[in-house]
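help with these tokens:
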Amino acid sequence: MFFLLTLSSAVGLAFGNILESKGLRAANSVKSLAKNKFWLGGLLLSIVATLLYYAAMDKYNISLVQPFMALNPALTAILGWKILGEKISKKIAIAIALIFCGILIDGTLAGEVSGGLYSEKTLWIYAGATLTLLSVACFVFRKAEIVDSLCAGTGFGLSAVFYKSISLDGLFPPPIDLRIFVFVVLYIAAFFCSQAGLRRGRALFVIPLSAAIGLVVPVLGGLVVFGEPFPSQKIIIMVLVLVGSVLFVRD
């Protein structure tokens, strides 16, 4: 079930990204975008894939699920090359190879013991520190497609951490919960940043970089906030992803 949920989600997101990018480039207004079959199809695929992703997070550690989402940028890069005619440089090819290596390593950890610790205070501290680092990064990297990617990746990654914290309260969390509000705001903001990035930048750049950031944030959140196991294999996975993200930024 683990591999079915994670792989289906990653593949669905990759195809959704390409269709959305194709639709965004063809549309010249919000009205035309709402009628664009590529964008609508991509959006539908992304919604289904996201639901599968959240189902996986309900059942398994976030630090175990998230690395498999790196298939999204790898497949997006390949599909962007085949469908959108975007070029794959040697650096991007190496980044894709690193992602696949990380996934292979992560697959060996399926079935690990679930994290048992959770502190809501730690959640808010982690969120504040992450958003502070995002502000600094956006100030340093001022190029539009880099800022869009950083904001999208951080938003999606941090929203995943909040979702995991909410899911620990069971099927019906308290109706008045600031975490739910923050989760929704982060996800919506990340969605709009990703759409802006796909329209203004290269899908081959925006998706892999945002997904790399969106991987690191939840994995560290799993360790810091939820006390999930963090064996040496996860350290290797994190290094592979970080090196890959640097390659994308410098391309």
Remarks:
- The radius of gyration is 17 Å.
- The CA atoms of residues 42 and 93 lie 25 Å apart.
- DSSP finds eleven helices and no strands in the chain.
- The longest helix spans residues 2-26.
